Amino acid sequence: MHDVLWAAGLAGAVLCLAGHLSSPVRWWLPHAVALAVMLVMVPGVAGRDVLSAGAVALGAGCVWQWRMGCSYRRCAESVNLAAMAVLTAVAVGAEGAHHVDPASVAVAEDAVTPWAVLVLVGCWGLARAGAVLVSRAWPVRPTGPRPARRVLLAGESGGALMIGAMAIMLAWP
């Protein structure tokens, strides 16, 4: 099951990246980082150090996207990258909790509860709605050509697929 979810998250990362490849590098670089993080999150292979580095890289990508990204999608894509960074950090905690010696420390049986992941996904949805409202209330000055509808659709569906697959992988180990 985790292999299918990982492949779905990877497909979402590819969709997010595909819409920006014809743009300048500064617009698609954070999406390439997200794809790389999804690649290293292979179920059962990624270690705690790799996931920690991925969470930090996604956080940096989020800040980069907020400052330098496509002006039409800056808020929404920054929220997606921030949610991925938080979910990756939660995966670091879950990975560490599974490798603790039970004789030395009492650890809860479930490192990450489905309710906690549901709250994270709810916060992501609320932040995405807030990003849309803010972009409607205070429109940005365009810094380049407006992306085509298919590019916007690919980015939206790719972001939802990535966040959804990561959340399900964390909630049901």
List the keywords.
0% strand; 173 residues; 6 helices; mainly alpha
What's this, in brief?
The protein has 173 residues and is mainly alpha-helical. 73% of the residues lie in helices and 0% in strands.
Report the β-strand fraction as a percent range.
under 5%
**Number of discrete helical segments:** 6
What's the overall geometry? Answer: globular
Mean pLDDT across every amino acid position: 79
Along the chain, the helix and strand elements come as HHHHHH
User: How many β-strands, per DSSP?
Assistant: 0
- How much helix, percentage-wise, in residues? over 70%
Q: pLDDT below 50 for ≥5 consecutive residues: which ranges?
A: 97-109
> Sheet with the most strands?
none
Outline the structure in words.
This protein has 173 residues and is mainly alpha-helical. It is built from 6 helices and no strands.
How would you summarize the topology of this molecule?
Elements: H1 2-18, H2 25-40, H3 48-68, H4 74-98, H5 114-137, H6 149-171
Helix pairs in contact: 1-2, 1-6, 2-3, 3-4, 4-5, 4-6, 5-6
